[in-house]
Amino acid sequence: MTIRLYDLVGSDPSRPFSPHCWKVRMALAHKGLGFEAVPVRFTEVAGVEGGGGRTVPVIRDGDTVVQDSFAIAEYLDDAYLDRPPLFEGASGRALARFVESWSQRTLHPAIVKATILEIHAFQDEENRAFFRASRERTFGKPLEEVQDGRTEEKRAATSKALEPLRATLRRQPFLAGDGPMFADYIVFGAFQWMRCVSTFSFLEGDDPIQDWLDRCLDLHGGIGRALPAAA
């Protein structure tokens, strides 16, 4: 039975943009598992697989339903032991947890502050209203005031925060070493999110992170690159 992936989209159902859903897309491709993507908009998320306050990504694999990108990756490794691993044992999972924490506390906020108006514009009319109301409630100010991450000062600060990533990728082709694992897909998901919704970038053309991103886009038959960048 084909795995079903509930995947966040905006007004165009062919352009999935969630960083967390992209982690799972890459993880499924890494394991060589076919899947059916079910496009879901923000206002539909809570009703996925019976509801109960769900968030996406969610997968259904036969009778098994799993929510949360990291939990899905762990499930895939445990359920499909004969496929290429996403982690190198328990220590690999623990290190990937660190990468996830770093990404969500360093990279994700910078992307939001640089692109939140474009994420808003990416939605259909109903979901623009939902997105604006929910995010302005979270931030306590209008989206127009949240998007302050494009000044040269903010861009330079983000670039400096990415230096540990850059230094690692000067030494090796992937975060996991010679080949990619789930830690790579965690960070790739964030950059793919930005690539899907905006033409803005924190990276210069000769940045080792950009070289790594290009390698990730070409992985697994180019599943990442098959989605055109925002124009």
Automatic annotation (TrEMBL):
GO terms for biological process: glutathione metabolic process; L-phenylalanine catabolic process. Keywords: Transferase. GO terms for molecular function: glutathione transferase activity; maleylacetoacetate isomerase activity. The keyword Transferase applies. InterPro entries: Glutathione-S-Trfase_C_sf, Glutathione_S-Trfase, Glutathione_S-Trfase_N, GST_UstS-like_C, Thioredoxin-like_sf. Pfam families: GST_C_7, GST_N_2. Residues 8-84 form the GST N-terminal domain. PANTHER family: MALEYLACETOACETATE ISOMERASE. This is Glutathione S-transferase family protein. It comes from Aureimonas flava.
